[in-house]
Amino acid sequence: MALSNAAIVEHLQQLLSADQVNTDPVELQRSSVDNFRKLQNIFDVHTMREPLAVVYVRSTDDVSRVLAFADEHGVNVVARTGGTATEGGLESGAEQSIVVDGSQMNAIVKIDAYNMQATAQCGVPLQLLEDEVRKVGLTTGHSPQSKPIASMGGLVATRSIGQFSTLYGGIEDMVVGCEAVFPGGGVSRIKNVPRRAAGPDIRHIVIGNEGALCYITEVTVKLFPHLPENHVFLGWTLKQMTTGFEALREVMVAGFKPSVARLYDFEDGQLHFSHFAKPDECILLFMAEGNAGITKATAEGIAELVAKYPECVPVDPKFIREWFDDLVWGPDKVTREDERIRTTRNVNRTTEISADWSSINQIYEAVIPRIRAEIKGITLLGGHSSHSYINGTNMYFNYFYDLIDCEPEEENDKYYFPIIDIICEETLRFGGSIVHHHGIGKARAKWVREEYGSSFPMLQTLKDAFDPHGVMNMGTIIPTN
Ligand SMILES: Cc1cc2nc3c(=O)[nH]c(=O)nc-3n(C[C@H](O)[C@H](O)[C@H](O)COP(=O)(O)OP(=O)(O)OC[C@H]3O[C@@H](n4cnc5c(N)ncnc54)[C@H](O)[C@@H]3O)c2cc1C
To answer: Does residue 438 have its Cβ closer than 6 Å to ligand 1?
Structure first.
């Protein structure tokens, strides 16, 4: 027989300690949503199902005991570390849900400068790890804009990517090993080695699982030399995105590895570069870093390639450095943005996709006019490419809208869903991926079968095998209907 809500809370208090089980009504309300429905927290209107408790785990053993209990009694587990999720991954997908919060598992286990790797518990904010490794002249190379708040568990669980991805890769290129707890409480440790060919790479069952297969308790990531004295910044203005994509492609295909490679359209660009770019100008920018000789050759080579495009007009590199210095989002910027939304009822959202070089501009050109034509109240609509590869790039659509005839709690249905539907439809039509780095969460789960196509049964099989009772983050990645 199923346990009552009160009995579940009581069992958890006995399993851990009473102070690890938070049932404060305000905390439960705030924990019913993430940034996907952030307006509910900003305007304090709550319509979503609340978890029964927020459970603060302090060790792998705590996680193991909680997951064994949840699996036995059919309690849905929502894993959380930094809480910066944008796609509804932190919403309670079932009536009897608990949030298992790993933010108190916040120890840096080891910084191994000789083997160039660092091990951290899931609740270590990336900024903290980065600050520590910088003290010994190293960097993780990972710098998502949420770096001050997002933590190692969530960063791995969402397949996150940072600003320097073109040189260091996404988190999947950085994780060398990890520890994870599976439903039922079993603990698996994947050892840290430079490479393996011992069958499929099972790190990828953990990386990107969004709490729908397992709970990540510890991760080991690579480290790199940090040489800020060698940083070089380059920027150009230009009139057309097509030219920018061509130049970006040439740089990537030629084998250059800038740490940052970005192309902003004019409307998105005006948010950052209006002090030097005209309102109809796009911006192409690069940053090179690392070893002095390689950095110099990278910057010179890129400048030579871009010079082949007369449309590209160089800008003073100091502007690009200034932009770079103000990129990350800590709690202060988040609070300022929430306050802006509360007072103006003007909302800013983003959606990121990827595609090959042949398709990316087609997707961009299909999405922008459709959103303008089909969605009322748009006050800004643009996008940028921020992560490039030899075979393609991403597009990060950035849009603002006024809430017209719309209560804050209706925003997702009236605005966000119709917009992401357009973006996903057009991306799939041209063969791209509907998610470049924020995860599927619950927001994009309805598109997942089309995203995977004939490989969807492989994903479903993983879910069925690792989470046979369906207690891990129900509705995340795999939709419930
Ligand atoms: C202002 C802002 C800027 C952002 N910039 C970027 C960016 O540049 N690049 C980028 O990739 N993303 C970005 N994001 C998205 C977000 O920060 C990332 O998805 C990040 O990886 C989430 O980490 P977190 O610790 O906050 O995870 P949470 O928000 O706690 O959780 C995210 C997801 O992972 C699951 N999860 C959390 N912890 C665990 C665990 N220990 N085990 C298993 N599953 C777990 C959760 O259930 C949820 O589905 C941004 C978000 C914001 C709000």
So the answer is: yes
Q: What is the pLDDT of residues 251-309, one digit of tens each?
A: 999 999 999 999 999 999 999 999 999 999 999 999 999 999 999 999 999 999 999 99
Phi/psi at 406 (5° precision): -150, 125
Kindly write down the DSSP assignment for every residue of 183-199, as one continuous string: TTS-EEEE---S---SS
Q: How far is the CA of 207 from the centre of ligand 1 (A)?
A: 12
CA of 128 to the centre of ligand 1 (A): 16
The residue whose CA has the least distance to atom 7 of ligand 1 is: 144
184-217 in b/e form (b: 16+ CB < 10 A) is bbebeebebeeeeeeeeeebebbbbbbbbbbbbb
Asked if pLDDT for residue 1 goes beyond 90, the answer is: no
- Tell which atom from ligand 1 comes closest to the C-alpha of 35: 53
Identify whether the C-beta of residue 208 lies closer than 8 Å to the C-beta of residue 459: no
Burial of 68 (0-12, 13-18, 19+ CB in 10 A): middle
For the domain covering 5-103, report its CATH number. Answer: 3.30.43.10
CATH 3.30.43.10 fits 108-225, yes or no: no
Give the residue extent of every domain in the chain: 5-103, 108-225, 228-325
Q: Is the CB of 93 under 6 A from ligand 1?
A: no
pLDDT digits (tens, 9 = 90+) for 255-266: 999 999 999 999
Give yes or no on whether 108-225 and 228-325 have one common fold: no
Residue 412 CB–ligand 1 contact under 6 Å: no
Mean pLDDT of the region 2-23: 97
pTM over 0.85: yes
Q: Mean pLDDT score of the chain, rounded to an integer?
A: 97
- What is the arithmetic mean of pLDDT over 358-365? 98
Question: Does ligand 1 have an atom closer than 6 angstroms to the CB of 84?
Answer: yes
Lowest mean pLDDT among 201-205, 331-335, 454-458: 331-335
Q: Is the CB of 442 under 6 A from ligand 1?
A: no
pLDDT at 271: 94
Tell me the CATH number of domain 228-325, given options 3.30.70.3450, 3.30.360.10, 3.90.1230.10, 2.60.40.10: 3.30.70.3450
| Distance between Cα 314 and ligand 1 center (Å) | 36
Cα of 174 from ligand 1 centre, angstroms: 16
Is ligand 1 within 6 A of the CB of residue 165? no
Tell me, using a 6 A CB cutoff, whether residue 86 lines ligand 1: yes
Q: Which of 93, 106, 102 is nearest to 181 (CA)?
A: 102
